[in-house]
TrEMBL record:
The keyword Coiled coil applies. One of its GO terms (molecular function) is GTP binding. Keywords: Coiled coil, GTP-binding, Nucleotide-binding. Residues 343-409 form a coiled coil. SUPFAM superfamilies: P-loop containing nucleoside triphosphate hydrolases. It comes from Nelumbo nucifera. Residues 88-296 form the AIG1-type G domain. PANTHER family: GTP-BINDING PROTEIN A, GTPASE, IMAP FAMILY MEMBER-RELATED. The gene is LOC104588970. This is Immune-associated nucleotide-binding protein 8 isoform X1. Belongs to the TRAFAC class TrmE-Era-EngA-EngB-Septin-like GTPase superfamily. AIG1/Toc34/Toc159-like paraseptin GTPase family. IAN subfamily. Signal peptide: none annotated.
Amino acid sequence: MIGPLTNSSLSGCVSFRELLLHYQVSSLFKYKKRSRFVSGSRLSQALLKVYADIVHRVTYLLLLQINYLITMGGSMIDDDWELASSSSEVRTVVLVGRTGNGKSATGNSILRRKAFKSKTSSSGVTSTCEMQRTVLKDGQVVNVIDTPGLFDFSAGSDFIGKEIVKCMDLAKDGIHAVLVVFSVRTRFSKEEEAAIQSLQTFFGEKISDYMVVIFTGGDDLEDNDETLQDYLGRECPEPLKEILHLCKNRVVLFDNKTKDEKKQVEQVHQLLSLVDMVVAENGGQPYSDEFLAELKQGAMKLRNKREEVESLKGYTKQEILGLKEQIYRSYEDQLRRITEMVELKLRETTQRLEKKLAEEQAARLKAEQIAQAAQLKSNDEIRQLRESLERAQRETEELRRKSERCTIL
Ligand SMILES: Nc1nc2c(ncn2[C@@H]2O[C@H](COP(=O)(O)OP(=O)(O)O)[C@@H](O)[C@H]2O)c(=O)[nH]1
Ligand SMILES: [Mg+2]
């Protein structure tokens, strides 16, 4: 433990905290300023704004986590890593879905405690990604990440996928399963369809291999004497069918209201069996990406260095503490670098998007010009044809009149 370091670490991080505050305050302003966008020439500008907003928010989230790690004196990072590396039984699952579908309630059912704020609670809904952990009776550790309404944004499907990157920061060890939460109490919407598409766009097609569908509202079905199969038989639009097909029908029904302990255990058991299936089908490899890998590497380095220092002989306690402080500061620097890398990556994405949008806009403009020119040309041709026709009619008339005069004569 490097508990005694906490105070000195904190005092060394005043400027970092100011940075965090800056992001926190400006995030609030940015959020308030965001408006709903429409298509047309303002689309590219609007999307760029949205992406800038994401860059900002992801940075804020990373800073928030760094701040958390700092205030925890660093021990948290190491423990997390040791736990993850020593136990193959760790499962990290992420709940995604439209606000109100029951993500937080499902998270609480999995954890068997009220860890996440659900809508009915007076303290409101989930506003940012949050991770909670539970240890099952058999020793399996389950990390549950709850997310805010990633399906609620109306600024384009790509954007929704981008929001999800935030929670990846919480899942250093990779994501074992993405739990897509729907509710039998609300109709499957176009937005939900778009959100799944964006999930795939952002994470790549392989994300389907990690998806498990959860339907909440099992109590409602039970009240109507219906099973999930009955429900899907009458209420399964084509896009939902496709989603179920994509995730090989890994679907489970949850009743988050039940007080029946047997039912509570059984539904979580069913879900975790599906998660196990996902893990097995993916050869035990959780979903990961480049910056997740970087975070993991940093945590591993920190652990090794700390172990080295702890095994040093002939140093005073004070000297060991000093060395540990140095190591921790270098880890902080690394976290900052990763934050910068993420910012850069997202900025590059923004630029790529900007370029793509500009190209699309130029192509659209060109197509419009060609269509306009074609229209003008065809108008001109029609006019010429009409004139020729009229001329021909006049000439025919003239000839007819002449021939009539000839007949009379
Ligand atoms: N009847 C019933 N209500 C549920 C169920 N799951 C969630 N809810 C309710 O749905 C509302 C939204 O739940 P919440 O977990 O906040 O949704 P989130 O926005 O997706 O996190 C709350 O009022 C929950 O009590 C369920 O299985 N049955
Ligand atoms: Mg919630």
